[in-house]
Predict the structure of Malate dehydrogenase.
Amino acid sequence: MKKPVTVTVTGAAGNIGYALLFRIASGSMLGEDQPVKLNLLEIPQAVKAAEGTAMELNDAAFPLLAGVDIYDDATKAFAGCNYGLLVGARPRTKGMERADLLAANGGIFGPQGKAINDNAADDIKVLVVGNPANTNAFIAAASAPDVPAERFTAMMRLDHNRALSQLAQKTDSQVTDIEKMIVWGNHSADQYPDVSFATVNGKPAVDLVDEAWLDDYFVPTVAKRGAAIIEARGASSAASAASAAVDHMRSWALGTPEGDWTTIAGPSHGEYGVPEGLVYGMPCTCANGEYTVVEGLELSDKTQAQIAKNAQAAQAEIDEVKKLGLL
Ligand code: NAX
């Protein structure tokens, strides 16, 4: 059996946390031969609820669970952390301006980035789920100058999985029949789910669905799925978000299948005209614990225009964060 790794989950007492922790402890995220030690980080008011979750984790008697600890102090929660899942965030409440939301989250992700910088293991991998995820990841990375920026990623996997599911339903196939899906951008209504390179059972997806379906149904359905879930459930996506977080980390740690890729938002190096540093969803392959952007794809004018529009909106959010003095 391997040595246990430390996985820190913030917002552990929340809805996503409740679905996520059990999947991690079961081995779904890092493999059925990898023991995990879980560090749960919460705000002081939610520590009691996190204790309840920890009791249940212990009661599940997972063979791979090497221990659970609960903290309300990021410095301690990230000590020796190998995998950080940053789920806890300040939600937007009624009447809250965007600047207030950014400031509140800057106050969370800045200090957590610093705590990671000063206390995490050298091989730390971070996934930011808490919204606005891409901007929060940017802030955390900027607060951790000693950690390579690439180790801070934001979650686009839920959008990617939603896109797979929609295309599979439309083409009467299974998600496992689909390869090379992409969701460009950030986890917002501006994102661009793109089937240009996708195949279904080896056939180009663009030959199986028409453009009107893509423009009028597929893209808006994927991009606005979060709102549709809230409308139907009366609560935001939780289990699917947790599942996507597990998938994201699993791909990063254990690799993507030969001939396929996934969508990861990491800091841009200027690929596809995306401003450098912007945490932006792009097609990536993973191997040996690293992810690499798939370069050299010939993008249509339409895709390029969508990327330019979306990148501009994402950059505007970063500019606002800078203006607010959060970095
Ligand atoms: P909940 O409100 O159920 O849980 C959030 C938890 O975070 C709470 O228990 C709260 O006490 C805790 N928390 C707040 N500040 C904290 C801090 N500074 N340190 C540690 N914990 C803290 O929300 P939930 O439904 O679990 O969603 C969590 C986040 O995921 C939200 O920001 C949400 O918008 C975001 N999502 C992101 C998605 C994505 O694809 N990137 C999709 C799903 C989800 O909407």
In short: The first helix runs from residue 15 to 26. Residues 264 and 281 are 5 Å apart (CA to CA).
